[in-house]
Amino acid sequence: xxxxxxxxxxxxxxxxxxxxxxxxxxxxxxxGLFWYRQDPGKGPEFLFTLYSAGEExxxxxxxxxxxxxxxxxxxxxxKPEDSATYLCAVRYNQGGKLIFGQGTELSVKP
Amino acid sequence: xxxxxxxxxxxxxETGTPVTLRCHQTExxxYMYWYRQDPGHGLRLIxxSYGVKDTDKGEVSDGYSVSxxxxxxxxxxxxxxxxxxxxxxxxxxxxxxxxxxxxxxxxFGEGSWLTVV
Lengths: 110, 117
Known about the structure:
The complex is a heterodimer of chains A (110) and B (117). By secondary structure, chain A is mainly β. Chain A is 0% helix and 56% strand. Chain B is built from no helices and 11 strands. In chain B, the strands form 2 sheets. In chain B, strands 2, 4, 5, 6, 9, 10 and 11 form a 7-stranded mixed beta sheet that branches. In chain B, strands 1-3-8-7 form a 4-stranded antiparallel beta sheet, with no helix packed on it. Chain B starts with a strand and ends with a strand. Chain A binds chain B through residues 31-32, 34, 36, 41-46, 49, 51, 87, 89, 91, 93-98, 100-103, and chain B through 31, 33, 40-45, 48, 50, 56, 58, 90, 94, 97-98, 101, 104-111.
């Protein structure tokens, strides 16, 4: 069964405390792994797309990596404004449909 | 920000009434999607469209219908609203999934909060 699992469900960090979020997937024929950020009351905001194992993307304090079975979103020296829910999704066919994980709710305290 | 406008943003309706949510895009993207987001289930695809008058079902399509008569508009209709359809509904657009990498990204609107009482 095609599935996307994110862990942990919630993560609380102190400002400056680096950590990683995990997204594991079991789909065949991966056609892209997407990371989104979602603030309360808002729609998901696109962060990164990764296509092949070994690929990495960076944006400010965020770095996404991809292996054949999982992706990590590394957060370096986070700030309170990084607090949000981070969603992972995979596309596995030509139809453009995405399967989403349940998300990781990140809270960064000053 | 992707030019996606959803309306209404908030609606309360009674069980058994029909409801239509509208998504309007200014990006001229070919693909449009409707998702719902619920606690414990994440985002799930309801229906999507790959062109004018071309639509297909997603994983949770029962009780919903869609129409796309113009590139820029994608309508989601709850034919007879039920309490289980209380949710947040997100419209999304994509240029060319499966094609070029730049066109592969799906962008989301701000959501429509629907409460069925």
